[in-house]
Structure formats: structure tokens, C-alpha cells
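Check out a protein:
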Amino acid sequence: MNTALAIAGSVFVGLAALIHLYIWTLESLRWSQPSTWRTFGVTSQEDAETVKPMAFNQGFYNLFLTIGVAIGLVLAWTGPIEAGLALVFLAAGSMVGAALVLILSSPKLARAAAIQGAAPLVGIILLVLALTTA
């Protein structure tokens, strides 16, 4: 395994985990603040209250993906490597998949999709390269 690429890939999926932890904070802990729901395109307090249960639930999806990446990285670096990488690829791949769903369903949210999906995609690519090069 190419250690430099493995480290770089780990940094990118770690960054992805931090981004998704921040999204969890916004959606599940800070949703009632106007600055937060406006970030997600919600235009009124009434609409924010209507969407709040869905945002809360969605936030926890982001938290669980974060936990998956974090546990995966710990296992990948301390053993068992295969189990760790499987968790990392599953969680980071889910982040990329969610970003694709977002951009395909709402092209106007391309920036949000890029924020959500770029770091895990780069991390996955680097980790695959690390595994396939010496």
C-alpha cells in the first residue's frame, strides 16, 4: 500500500466526516435559527417548523455517516485494515451517493452537493490508488 496516498485519502475522508458533522449540527441542533434554515433555502419560520422533523432526522443520517468514517479510519490505521476500509468506503460512498442524488434532484443545489460530495470522492479515489500502487 502507498502510505502517502493512504494518508492523503484519510485526510480527505476525515474532512468529509467533519463537514457532515457540521451539517448534523445545523440540521439537528441549530435548525430553529433563521440563519440556519435560510442556508437550506427555507424562506419562512412557518416552513422551517414544518420541515424541522425531517431536517432533524436527516441530520442524524449525516452524524451516522461521520461515525462510520471515524470508526473506519481508526480500524484502517490500527487493524483490522480490511474492516476499517470497508466502513470508510461504505460511509464515504454514501456521502458521494447523497451528493449525486442532491444534484440530480435539485440542480440549483449544485454548490451544496459539491460541498457534501467532493471531499469523500477525492478520499475514496486516493484510498483506492493507495491500495493499487506500491
Remarks:
- The CA atoms of residues 1 and 105 lie 37 Å apart.
- The helical segments are 3-29, 34-39, 45-78, 81-105, 110-132.
- The chain is about 85% helix and 0% strand.
- The chain has a mean pLDDT of 97.
